[in-house]
Amino acid sequence: MSASRLLTLGAAALLLGAARGDELPATARRLIDEADKQIQEIEKKAQTQVAARRKKLLADLKALEESFTKEAKFAQAAAVRARIREIEAGPLVRAARPDPGTLTNFRGQVGKSFVFEVTGGMNGSCWGTGVYTDDSTLATACVHAGVLKVGQKGLVKVTVLPGQASYPSSTQHGVNSGSWNAWNGSFRVERVKP
């Protein structure tokens, strides 16, 4: 049998195995698991270092602000104070978008997440439970999902999802969501962790 024929048969066998959902060999799974563990350890260490550096920066800036205030350099003190507030708020606040109302303009950006500043409400409609149609009112879906209370303003993370075959209705947190059949776009909403 020719080498090209063997390669073709080998490729076909791999594709058939993937189509059947065959598991990765144990050695490959072990390599992936070990790499995942190392990556998590590196990320945890980096987060600790970033938090420590951020804390030191804030302490240094607060001392500088006090120094400018004592020297009657009020404009400089105010500028430093404003920057301190921005740093304390964190990067998500600076990156937050205003409430878009619905997520229909984000359809097609499947898998992407966005942070919005939303005030929970009950004036709009929402369809689904946990996963909502993208024409659902975001403020209402936030209350239904338990992410915000009515009138509460906060940051929410919205992940754009593909359309679903159906959207079940339910009553949660005082909000009735409707049921819907197939729809072209969806989203999930969750609380932004500080």
Task: Provide an overview of this structure.
The protein is 47% helix and 19% strand. Helix 2 (26-70) runs antiparallel to helix 3. The N and C termini lie far apart (62 Å). It folds into two domains: 26-89, no CATH class; 95-191, Ferric Hydroxamate Uptake Protein, Chain A, domain 1. The relative contact order is 0.11. The longest helix has 45 residues, at 26-70. Strands 1-2-5-8-4-3 form a six-stranded mixed sheet. It has helices at 3-20, 26-70, 74-89, 91-95, 138-144, and strands at residues 97-98, 113-119, 128-129, 131-133, 153-162, 170-172, 175-177, 185-191. The protein is α+β, with helices and mostly antiparallel strands.
Summarize it:
The protein is of the alpha+beta class. Helices cover 47% and strands 19% of the residues.
How are the elements arranged and paired?
Blueprint: H1 3-20, H2 26-70, H3 74-89, H4 91-95, E1 97-98, E2 113-119, E3 128-129, E4 131-133, H5 138-144, E5 153-162, E6 170-172, E7 175-177, E8 185-191
Parallel strand pairs: 1-2
Antiparallel strand pairs: 2-5, 3-4, 4-8, 5-8, 6-7
Shape: flat
CATH-defined superfamily of the largest domain: LCCL-like domain
Number of strands: 8
Query: Biggest sheet: strands side by side, in what order?
Result: 1-2-5-8-4-3
Could you describe the largest sheet, including whether it forms a barrel?
6 strands, mixed
Structural class by sheet pairing and helices: alpha+beta
Q: Would you state the CATH class of the largest domain?
A: Mainly Beta
Helix tally? 5
Mean pLDDT rating:
86
Write out key terms for the chains shown.
single chain; Ferric Hydroxamate Uptake Protein, Chain A, domain 1; 8 strands; disordered N terminus; 6-stranded mixed β-sheet; alpha+beta; 19% strand; 194 residues
